[in-house]
Amino acid sequence: MLKVxxxxxxxxxxxxxxxxxxxxxxxxxxxxxxxTIIGGNGAGKSTLLNSICGVFTVDRGTVVIDGVxxxxxxxxxxxxxxxxxxxxxxMGTAADMWIEENMSLAFRRGKxxxxxxxxxxxxxxxxxxxxxxxGLGLENRLSSKVGLxxxxxxxxxxxxxxxxxxxxxxxxxxxxxxxxxxxxxxVLNLSDRFIKDEGLTAMMITHxxxxxxxxxxxxxxxxxxxxxxxxxxxxxxxxxxxxxxKKFADISGNELANDRMLLSN
Length: 265
Hints:
This protein is an alpha/beta fold. It has a single domain (2-92, 168-263), classed as Rossmann fold (3-Layer(aba) Sandwich), CATH 3.40.50. Helices cover 35% and strands 23% of the residues. The protein has ten helices and ten strands. It has helices at 45-53, 75-78, 99-107, 121-132, 151-163, 181-198, 209-214, 233-237, 241-252, 259-263, and strands at residues 2-11, 19-29, 34-39, 60-65, 68-69, 82-85, 169-173, 202-205, 218-223, 226-232. The chain has a six-stranded mixed sheet with strand order 6-7-8-3-9-10, with helices on both faces. A four-stranded antiparallel sheet has the order 2-1-4-5, with helices on one face. α5 packs parallel to α6.
């Protein structure tokens, strides 16, 4: 479903601020794989996701989604293959629009659009049904502005909108980092359920090493623009946070000094 082949990305090339963000990254995901991605600040995690999304073009290498080489496609042309949930609950939805209007936009993503805009009763009933599965009472608030929702409610809605069209690849970019622990757990459980029920292929960046171990069937660790460690299957299931810290030190030659990662475990 995803093949990232030897990609490189350097920002501010030739200046004093030159930064090698990706340095020969290779990654393959089969349909239904769910990989969690960990690493310190500046490891290249978000740059990897952005290179898949087409936020910028890579300097070298290729990105292939479901057999289609999207390396040279702009961001808007890759959107039909992807669903994405950001760290900031304010992104991914339109605050001044109703819940049902936001869902209608997600429902029509990638489809031909005519002059007809009205939401049909059948659509509205479908949205209520989808929202009811979130367990947050939003099915009774279709005409509420999204900006009035709590961060957790908004992130759950964004997640639902991201999977409505069953994307080829779901990208979760630290999507629980801005939430309190209880709400974060709710959104993570919803993510697991959507990925499993829809058979989605997914990538999740997280600073929480316990979450990285507990979710998904694969785990990769990044450092200085490279994937330095990967685990799957029984090896991943048996990992502990101490194991990850030791592997990071052994492979990178450095102690992990990322306070955010250490404090969240």
